Amino acid sequence: MAQMRAVVAERPDGPDGLVVREVPRPEPRPGWGLVRVEAFGLNRSEYKNAQGLRRRRGDVPADPRDRAGVVEAVHGDAPPVPPGTTVAALMGEMGRAFDGGYAEYALVPEHQLIALDTTLPWTCWARCPRRS
Asked: Could you tell me the pTM of the whole model?
């Protein structure tokens, strides 16, 4: 089975409880798309999860619920969002009912994938200065 790097919450200790591990890369299944994660957001709720202040599943990749990337693979011949499409995915039980996106790849329900039409480089998503 293919492997990937993922940040895993080993214990409820904020950033100190997070570690990078090699874990199995998920495989596409019907109705789900495998997304190569290029960017993700971190909000207050996710920070509280890392501190153990919110209920979550055990030792799984940490759970940002907002991410962007490229569809790597799908299951089936006529997916609503085909491989190679730049997408965003938001909320919808990510990190709770299924693994989050602090990982190189994330399996996301196809109905949650939002196709993006952008030429913004991935390096800018993470490093561009914020403007108000």
From this structure: 0.75
